[in-house]
Amino acid sequence: MTTQALATTAAAYKPATETGPAENVPVPVLPEKAKEFSKEGLIAFTEYWYQTLGYAFETGDPDPMMAISGEDCLTCQAMKETTVAGHSGGKWVSGGRMVIQTPTATFLETPDGTYQAIVLARQEQVKYYKPDRTLSKDLGVTTAKGDILVGRYIGGRWVAITVEHLAGSSAS
């Protein structure tokens, strides 16, 4: 079977609605650029990290995000717990994809051996649904917040050490 044939036989992506969870959500793919130890690599990695966060909200599967996040990343752990809980016991989440403006980075190593990327990020409206299809919680529409991703290049790959709102940016 050719690649073209495989692409046309794959099930189509269907976003979550009030009647059911998302289906056939494409797993984000780490771009080649995000593997580089460079300013451009850090920026591509940051964009990818936010894609994996959106994927976790849509699917309840935080594994791609956690695979590129450090063990001590408290924000990453919190997002893992939130997304898993939002999809447990027949529940689902509608929305949650991340919308970001191009990250920036000075690519200067900090004293602890990390690098920082700054991004304006907002999340598409998130709605939590119960198994009986009733709305449990609507987080409303959020505005973009200034975030910082602190990354470290370890063993030939970037790892998110922490991702959080910048001082002065309120949590959504």
Can you describe what's shown?
- This protein has a four-stranded antiparallel beta sheet with strand order 2-3-6-7. It has a three-stranded antiparallel beta sheet with strand order 1-4-5.
- The chain is of the alpha+beta class and 172 residues long.
- The protein has one domain: Nuclear Transport Factor 2, Chain: A (Roll).
- The chain is 26% helix and 24% strand.
Task: Identify the strand order in the major beta sheet.
Answer: 2-3-6-7
| Spans of at least 5 consecutive residues with low confidence | none
Query: Major β-sheet, in short?
Result: 4 strands, antiparallel
Cα-based radius of gyration, to the nearest Å: 17 Å
Shape verdict: elongated
The CATH topology comes to Nuclear Transport Factor 2, Chain: A
Topology as a string of helices (H) and strands (E):
HHHHEEEEEEE
Helical/strand content category: alpha+beta
Beta-strand percent range: 15-25%
Integer average pLDDT:
92
Helical content band: 25-40%
CATH architecture: Roll
CATH class: Alpha Beta
Count every helix, treating DSSP H or I runs of 4 or more residues as helices: 4
Number of folding domains? 1
Distance between the termini: 46 Å
For the secondary structure, the number of strands is 7
Outline of this structure?
The protein contains four helices and seven strands.
List the helices and strands and how they pair.
Elements: H1 3-9, H2 39-59, H3 63-66, H4 74-86, E1 92-94, E2 98-100, E3 115-123, E4 127-129, E5 135-138, E6 145-154, E7 157-165
Antiparallel strand pairs: 1-4, 2-3, 3-6, 4-5, 6-7
